[in-house]
Each structure stands twice: as structure tokens, then as C-alpha cells.
Amino acid sequence: MEGIEDLDELEQKNIDGYNDLGSVPPEGTGTFASPILIPSRRTSRAVGYQDPESHAMFWFTIHNDDSSYYIKDLGLFFKMLPIPADEDAHAHH
């Protein structure tokens, strides 16, 4: 995905499933200076990852509070990327 427009298109095509898509963060992200950005229109969002050895799924929640979240098991930082609500899109649903 290259931008917010791509997320909007996915959301419009499959409102219930677009959050289930996996993604690979851009190379070089995951540091404190460049956290992995998780887009959301909500005030909080659950994020999951799969352990590469056991294939078990683990979940954590991030919030729209301008904080970076360090996940020790991954050694990576995450941060919410707030997406403004599009009032016109919601009016059509």
C-alpha cells in the first residue's frame, strides 16, 4: 500500500475484512526514531504478530495517544497513525 487512499479503497471494498490483512513493515522501520505506523480511524487498535518459530499469534493494543509502543519479544517500536474520519464515506453506509 502506498498511502491512505489505498486503505480507504480496501475499507470500502471489504469493510469487515480489511483490518485482517497482514503487512510487512517498510525496511528500516521499527526503531524508536522510525516506529512501525499502524493506521486507524479509532482511538485504539489491536495489533497481532505471529511468532516465527512457534507460529503462535500474539496481540497487543496501541492507542491514539502519540506514544510509541515497544514490543520486547520483537524488539520493535509501533505507533498509531491516526486517519481522520471521512464523514462523506460514513454517510453512505
Can you characterise this structure?
- By secondary structure, this protein is α+β, with helices and mostly antiparallel strands.
- The protein has one domain: Cytochrome c oxidase, subunit Vb (Cytochrome C Oxidase, Chain F).
- The protein has two helices and five strands, in the order αβββββα.
- The strands form two sheets. It has a three-stranded mixed sheet, with no helix packed on it.
- The longest helix is centred in the first third of the chain and has 10 residues.
Largest sheet: 3 strands, mixed
CATH architecture: Sandwich
Strand content: 25-35%
Report the principal-axis shape.
Answer: globular
- Supply the number of structural domains: 1
Whole-number radius of gyration? 14 Å
- The counted number of beta strands is 5
By CATH's scheme, which homologous superfamily applies? Cytochrome c oxidase, subunit Vb
Name of the CATH first level: Mainly Beta
Helix content class? 10-25%
Count, helices: 2
Mean pLDDT: 79
Strand order of the largest sheet: 1-5-4
CATH topology: Cytochrome C Oxidase, Chain F
- Uncertain runs with pLDDT below 50, 5 residues or more? none
Coarse structural class: alpha+beta
Q: Cα distance, first to last residue?
A: 24 Å
